[in-house]
Automatic annotation (TrEMBL):
The chain crosses the membrane at residues 12-31, 59-81, 102-120, 183-201. One of its GO terms (molecular function) is glyceryl-ether monooxygenase activity. Its main location: membrane. Residues 137-286 form the Fatty acid hydroxylase domain. This is Sterol desaturase/sphingolipid hydroxylase, fatty acid hydroxylase superfamily. It is found in: Endomembrane system. It comes from the Bacteria.
Length: 353
């Protein structure tokens, strides 16, 4: 079994390297076919997109926050949280939503304005000659495929699972829990620094467009408003649904990832790792498409841990007995053998892999 898993991992990583190289190859062929000509349009937006640049900039600065708050208010008013949003859950969601907005900007600013000029001082704007479409697909693929692997590994590596567990502890779906993450998981988001680096290299405009489009898709996939349902209901829309659900994350596919069980044929926390693009799950065989939605969400081992343990484990541990975030937890084996089970306070949780 271990050999098969190792072979699959090697195959998937090899395919990933090929996918990463595709935008670079396309840009190379483009300039080869145009005899290396670099027009002014390569460092600006295409004319047909200039009119929407202000909108994308506003969405980036404050629009996404407003979008989340409005959509969350609609969900709450419609009663879509089913009374699951208790005081403890609200506290975790609000802190996870607000704290990174205060704590992350200085880190990213230091990386972009101080670390990068020091590490690669002569490469600022060195990719500004890349055409907009090339930069867009380069960032979209590099960012989202990297996040796919980051996400997948946090489900498949027992130690890493505890950093991602906070996102899956919510017993509901919606805007309230979309930003619910352990801060250390967020801080080491490799794609944050990858996108910052590509922006430093001169791909700021494509990065802006990728960020906005990706944010809207991922927020829509977490929403409790099942916007994809009409595509499954009406036969005339089925061809669109077939493409849509394989290309991007939808409520049906991403809700399945947050289900608290995989035994009903709908839940699939062992896959559906894609964030913006679901196609990674199709390519690597980790996807499950049912066009149905789980009955319940979260993790069976959830103990409603304190906000500080969920947000800053392992810096702060939970005081809840039996919690995987408590002091003394040493491992998360898939199945603890009786002879290896040690007395309390060592606890075990089945990793969601």
């Amino acid at each position: 079994m271990a050999i098969v898993q190792k072979e699959k991992l090697t195959r998937d990583l090899s395919i990933s390297l090929l996918i990463y190289s595709l935008p670079v190859l396309a840009i190379f062929l483009y300039f080869k076919l145009t005899n290396g000509l670099v027009a002014e349009s390569h460092i600006t937006l295409p004319s047909y997109l200039e009119f929407i640049q202000p909108a994308f900039q506003n969405i980036r600065t404050w629009g996404l926050t407003v979008f989340m708050l409005v959509l969350g208010a609609v969900e709450f008013t419609a009663g879509l949280y089913d009374d699951e949003w208790t005081g403890q859950e609200r506290k975790v969601d609000i802190i996870c939503f607000l704290a990174p907005k205060l704590l992350l900007p200085p880190v990213i600013a230091f990386f972009s304005l101080t670390a990068l000029p020091y590490l690669i001082p002569n490469l600022a704007n060195s990719l500004s000659w890349v055409p907009f479409w090339g930069g867009f697909f380069l960032i979209a693929i590099a960012d989202d495929l990297t996040q796919y692997w980051y996400h997948r590994l946090h489900h498949q590596v027992p130690f890493l699972w505890r950093f991602h567990r906070t996102h899956h502890s919510a017993p509901y779906m919606g805007m309230a829990m979309a930003s619910r993450q352990n801060f250390i998981y967020t801080l080491f988001f490799s794609q944050i620094y990858l996108t910052a680096t590509l922006t430093y290299l001169g791909l700021g405009l494509p990065a802006l467009f990728v960020l906005v489009i990706k944010s809207i898709i991922t927020l829509g996939a977490h929403s409790s408003l099942k916007w994809d349902k009409p595509f499954y209901k009406y036969r005339a829309l089925h061809p669109i649904a077939w493409v849509l659900e394989r290309l991007i994350s939808t409520p049906a596919t991403h809700h399945a990832h947050h289900a608290d069980t995989s035994g009903d044929g709908v839940g699939h926390f062992k896959g559906n790792f894609g964030n913006m693009f679901f196609i990674w799950d199709v390519i690597f065989g980790t996807g499950l498409i049912t066009r149905k939605y789980p009955e319940s969400y979260g993790t069976k081992s959830y103990k409603q841990e304190e906000w500080y343990a969920q947000f800053l484990w392992p810096i702060f541990k939970s005081k809840k007995e039996g919690s995987p975030l408590a002091e003394g937890v040493v491992a998360f084996p898939l199945k603890a053998k009786p002879e290896n089970v040690t007395p309390s306070p060592v606890y075990y949780e089945q990793v969601q892999s």
